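Note to self: keep these together.
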Amino acid sequence: MLRPVVRVLISRFSIAFIELVIAVPMALGVREVWSRLWQQPDLHEQIETIGGLGIIMIGLGVVLEERGALRQIFGLAPAPDEAWQAHLDHNCHHAGLGQLVLGLFAEISIELTKIPNSVIYTGEVDDWLVAAGCIMVGVGGLLLIRHAVVLLFLLRRQFLAAEGNLHP
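Structure:
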């Protein structure tokens, strides 16, 4: 019963759609945080925004990385077009790793602002730490959009050309 649902959820079109949907709050969050950075002493809202977006990136990164494992778990592999599916798995693994690393660095920068100043004094660099997290989320959003475009338009053509099956 779950197999058809998982097949749809891990299709390249669903992944691209999910990535584009997630890129919207990432862009809005980065814009909002960046516009208010260095303007107010209380960074609580900015810290929560970047921290939340970092968690979303980490979660998405793990799912993308493990597309191949999900296919195995739900009995979707091997598929009739296994070479193509393996190529998608490989591509998603790389994109997922990028999201995971960028999300973790965004989280690290945010968590550094939460350490009490009696342990590590970050009072004067909190803005810069939030800015670093904001940059990580922004780059992650750009990579999501790029990966969605690759999944939707370029990947199949590149794969067929590499396999020698593309005829002009």
